[in-house]
Amino acid sequence: MATADESPGVDLDQQPARRVARTATHRLPAIGEMEGGGIRGSDDGTGLAIAVACSRFNGRVTDMLLAGALAELDRRGVAETDRTVVWVPGAFELPLAAMTLAGTRQFDAVICLGAVIRGETSHYDFVAGECAAGIQRVQLDMRLPVVFGVLTTENLDQALGRAGGALGNKGTEAAATAIEMANLLRRLASTAAGVPGNAGTAIAGPAGDAG
Ligand code: INI
Fold this sequence. Notes:
The chain has 211 residues and is of the alpha/beta class. It has helices at residues 16-24, 59-75, 94-103, 123-142, 156-161, 170-194, and strands spanning 50-55, 83-88, 109-117, 146-153, 163-165, 168-169. It has a 4-stranded parallel beta sheet with strand order 2-1-3-4, sandwiched between helices. The chain has a two-stranded antiparallel sheet with strand order 5-6. α4 (123-142) links the parallel β3 and β4. It starts with 15 loop residues before the first helix and ends in a 17-residue tail after the last helix.
């Protein structure tokens, strides 16, 4: 089928410059064409606005996750004025808070922090499973990085070990992920939209956005 560019009577061979431009509109740079062999978000948080939703349940752990996340945002240049922290009762409530924050369109990423620790009943499985599924749903539906900084452990010691203890801090990791993903989406959006004629197919626009 003839496209607008290939309408009868137009000899593309006579228009080499135009032909090159046309070719470029149809694809992102291939892996190998970008530095380092791929496209990656930077770890520089300057200019990014980040929201953090933090669960109060197992607060001894989540306080440490939050401290780790905020320190990492600081270290990577996210201004204090560009950060918002909201609290929810438990991990089960994190997806709704994340959805609401994402819906404001004021943030480049949302970080969810929580600690689900196995008890004697199956409650743990429901809370952990629904929390993870809900967070993933928000990030896909909203096309915004929503980071799963939620510990799911057998006991308190395992959680403490991953909240600033011997095994690192899940909050710190979550902040780094938020920045990298926010920058990656920005980059992909500008790569796609920046190619002449490709504005209508920018790949990182929010769901439901007309543009
Ligand atoms: N919430 C957590 O964040 N961590 C848990 O370990 C936990 N456990 O085990 O019960 C937990 N439960 C509360 C839940 O998140 C909701 O706040 C509650 O069910 C009300 O919706």
